[in-house]
Amino acid sequence: MAGKIFFRQRTKMKDGAHQPRYILVAVSDLSLKVYGNHLRMCELKMIAETVGAELVELPRGPKHQGEAAEKEHDED
Asked: Which range, 1-5, 27-31, 42-46, 69-73, is most confident?
């Protein structure tokens, strides 16, 4: 059975910031040490591909569902 790497999007992101966007939350069934907290999606994909793991994005909670809709509305 392949392992899983769980990640989520960062919360305090500034628009136009050139900072990694994702946070590694947990690893299951893998012998893996990670030394960075914030990672880019390309980095996550490369790690998952190399160790044969599946990437699992954790959804935001119901409290934050309205925030995503507001941001989409503000961009229009």
From this structure: 42-46
- Strands 22-28 and 38-39, by their bridges, are antiparallel
Q: Which residue has the tokens 């990672």?
A: 39
Indicate the domain borders of the chain. 4-75
Spell out the long-range contacts of 15-24 with Cβ–Cβ below 8 A and sequence spacing 24 or more.
Answer: none
Of the candidates 59, 55, 58, the residue with the CA atom closest to the CA atom of residue 4: 55
CA dihedral 5, 40, 12, 31 (to 10 degrees): 30
13 and 21 Cβ atoms separated by less than 8 Å: yes
Question: Whole-prediction pTM value?
Answer: 0.67
SS3 content of the chain, % helix, strand, coil (to 5): 35, 25, 40
